[in-house]
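Postdoc handover notes: sequence design on the structure in folder B. Input tokens:
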């Protein structure tokens, strides 16, 4: 039980830490990319104005032709009528791709735009495009576009992300180890306390068995002593004492079994089990007990003639006995119906009664230890609130699920789903 708790806490700690780490990395990368892009945008606009001044002053081309051929930087200059004055794009390996996305270019009003496209190999390319319009005496002199290849930044960003996520993975693994250590350290006092509690329950239950047995025998001897002249009141008291002694004996046996952890620790004798056969057998065994209370108990065959699982046959019998016994305790009339069927993946067992039913709030707690819907009624019926908890443990150890819901017009339906035998 505590091993599962340790793993669960470790997963929770690691999951929370992982989310925080991924968030921090994502935000860091995003802020870095935005900052670099913003800086490059400002620098590109400034460079365009410098290139224009150099062109006006000395006729120097805006971009070094060697950079154009490499595809690192390009430019186009138009006159007021839209005619090309300077073409420093045709010689670039990316000229056709950039021309194909002409609609995405920025307006030449000191604006920039991030352009991207994929080549024939599927490789993604990024360019930062900037456009400026130059005026003189209220007349447009030229429009200049410049394109800056951002592949180096993109590669750096990708490499940086890989490094950060690798670092993140290492930190997460270290966090998982540290989380497991901290979980084990924090749970250790609970383990000790739980072990002492179980030890106390086992010792107390064991020690109480003897005096209760002596008390039960003493009461029985008084009841069977024909020479004792007991009043009716005294005989009634003795009957109550005998009833309470038997009740306490059964409770102590249940506590002792619980303290030993029999249901969770005993190995399962796994084999191919025919659930239909088990259900018929248990119904035949429990039918006299139901009839004693005036109840009917029927097995209703499902669509599948035989339903097989890989499990412990004795535990399956115990499981059905618990559900049927619970139905008998909480029913005053009607019929208890047991069905075994299968869907594509699971064997489905249903135990349906016409008893007092169960509310949605109780349905969430009914499988907890010592929980009883109607405590006064349960005690009168001899229940301790352990049976359904044991049933849940049996189902869980077989890899299944158990649930309960109200039955119309009254009663309850307990449903068990177990993996089919393959």
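Designed sequence:
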């Amino acid at each position: 039980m505590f091993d599962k708790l340790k793993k669960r806490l470790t997963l929770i700690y690691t999951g929370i830490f992982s989310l925080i780490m991924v968030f921090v990395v994502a935000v860091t990368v995003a802020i870095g990319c935005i900052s670099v892009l913003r800086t490059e945008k400002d620098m590109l606009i400034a460079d365009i104005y410098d290139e224009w001044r150099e062109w006006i002053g000395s006729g120097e081309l805006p971009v070094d032709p060697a950079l154009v051929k490499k595809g690192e930087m390009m430019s186009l200059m138009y006159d007021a009528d839209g005619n090309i004055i300077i073409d420093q794009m045709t010689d670039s390996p990316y000229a056709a791709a950039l021309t194909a996305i002409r609609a995405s270019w920025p307006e030449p009003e000191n604006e920039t735009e991030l352009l991207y496209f994929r080549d024939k190999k599927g490789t993604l390319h990024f360019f930062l495009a900037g456009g400026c319009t130059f005026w003189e005496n209220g007349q447009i002199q030229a429009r200049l576009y410049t394109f800056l290849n951002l592949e180096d930044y993109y590669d750096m960003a990708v490499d940086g992300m890989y490094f950060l996520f690798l670092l993140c993975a290492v930190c997460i693994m270290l966090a998982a180890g540290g989380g497991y250590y901290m979980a084990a350290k924090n749970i250790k006092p609970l383990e000790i306390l739980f072990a002492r509690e179980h030890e106390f329950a086992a010792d107390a239950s064991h020690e109480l068995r003897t005096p209760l047995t002596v008390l039960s025998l003493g009461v029985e001897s008084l009841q069977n002593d024909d020479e004792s002249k007991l009043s009716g009141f005294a005989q009634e008291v003795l009957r109550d004492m005998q009833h309470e002694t038997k009740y306490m004996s059964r409770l102590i046996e249940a506590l002792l079994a619980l303290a030993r952890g029999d249901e969770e620790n005993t190995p399962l004798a796994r084999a191919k089990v025919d659930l239909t056969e088990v259900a018929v057998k248990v119904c035949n065994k429990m039918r006299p007990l139901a009839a004693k209370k005036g109840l009917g108990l029927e097995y209703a065959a499902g669509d599948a003639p035989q339903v097989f699982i890989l499990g412990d046959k004795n535990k399956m019998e115990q499981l059905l006995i618990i559900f049927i016994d619970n139905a008998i305790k909480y029913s005053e009339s009607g019929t208890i119906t047991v069905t075994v069927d299968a869907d594509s993946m699971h064997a489905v067992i249903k135990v349906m009664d016409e008893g007092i039913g169960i509310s949605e709030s109780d349905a969430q707690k009914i499988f907890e230890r010592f929980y009883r819907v109607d405590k006064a009624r349960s005690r009168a019926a001899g229940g301790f609130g352990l049976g359904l908890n044991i049933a849940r443990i049996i189902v869980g150890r077989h890899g299944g699920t158990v649930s309960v819901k109200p039955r119309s017009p009254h009663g309850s339906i307990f449903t068990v789903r177990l993996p089919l035998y393959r």
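Context for whoever picks this up: Residues 300 and 339 are 5 Å apart (CA to CA). Don't rerun without checking with the PI first.
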